[in-house]
């Protein structure tokens, strides 16, 4: 279906409005013409009534009305009315007397003996007091056209009859036939309506042509804007902008404002689309990088998870060996405790050792507190494994020293037994003591050997754990500072123990120091066992956390893939706009 232009529609609207206006004007003109013809006849009738009233002698008419009989005054006036009726062509001429109660015909213009002639005081049939009330006040009036079944169409005009002193003494009435009023009106309309219609047609035609040309020129840019909007809707932005830019406006109006607003909107939307394109490209690049990073992170998490499983198994073995070591140390402590009763100086020195080891234990607690996330917990595990290895070596050195001390004590006991034998009876008591000391020394030596065997086994387990830790040492190197601090403190402990060894060599209370040292070692192994248990628990928790993180990274990987698809769809959508 072909679309009509806006200018054509507006021209049709103008023609329709003008036609309605023509019909309205024609109706008003017809009514005015009809009223004008009637008013003209009424005006003529009033003029005739005024003229005839001025010809009647008012004083004579007043004389007649005083008696209201057919006297000379009556016949003079009647003859005058008869002459008027015969000479002017009026339908009827007569005089009236009116009051609110009745309106009466006094004299009419019919000849004597003529049928229908009125008698004096005969009531009127069509005239009322309201029709002549204004005449009694000095005005001349007329009625509308009356359509009477007996007399036909006519209208009446009334004029006051005045005496010489100006008093109104009667009313002169004239009835004028109105049968030809319709014919006059019809003829007048037939001659004027075509002229008016032709004039309106010419005016409508001229106005329509002028309006059509004006609107066509005015709304021509609107058609271009409409085409541009169609191109714009199809994504042909550049073509739409060129069409609107080519429009030349001769004046500033709503259409030019629309085109300018369209151009401004195009520029703003174009800038927005460029920004969207740029951001879409950035999102695409970022999502690609994110996808690659997630892949690498997931691979790393899988490796960490595998290592943490191995580490958890090693920690479990370490915990088992620690418990065995603690059991052996408890047995050794029982044996050493018997020797400890005879050494007071060794107790003081071992207290110093306990103080340093306690400081090392507190330092290890601080290191444990620093472990806050998976990576730090992993690093701390490696540090503690190294610490276990160092402490096992130190304990091994202590057992060597204890073995040496036991051998020296055995030699001393042997020498004491020899000296007691030389002393004879006086040395028997001393010989018994020396023999007990020798037995305790041998028992201490056996306990030390057992401890060294356990330490060797513990060292093997520690080495296995260290091998596992070495496989992932590159990922836990950040926690070495705290471990080094603990290592330094343990080194001071070793130095202090060396001093204790020197003191033990010079001190006769060797066994007491050994007892105190065994108790401290047992406490240290208890701490090691607790630490190993915590390490195993934490390692399992880290492994579970790593597994959960791997699942989360899988979800994030799927989301990253969806983001890539969305970014690609957005880019394809933007490419549709030229």
From TrEMBL:
UniProt cross-references to InterPro entries, sorted A to Z: Chemotax_Me-accpt_rcpt, MCPsignal_dom, Sensor-like_sf
Example of a GO cellular component annotation carried by this entry: membrane
Pfam families: MCPsignal (PF00015)
Source domain of life: Bacteria
Keyword terms of this UniProt record: Membrane, Transducer, Transmembrane, Transmembrane helix
TM region positions: 193-214
Biological processes, Gene Ontology terms: chemotaxis; signal transduction
Name of this chain's protein: Methyl-accepting transducer domain-containing protein
Organism for this UniProt entry: Psychrobacillus soli
Organism lineage: Bacteria, Bacillati, Bacillota, Bacilli, Bacillales
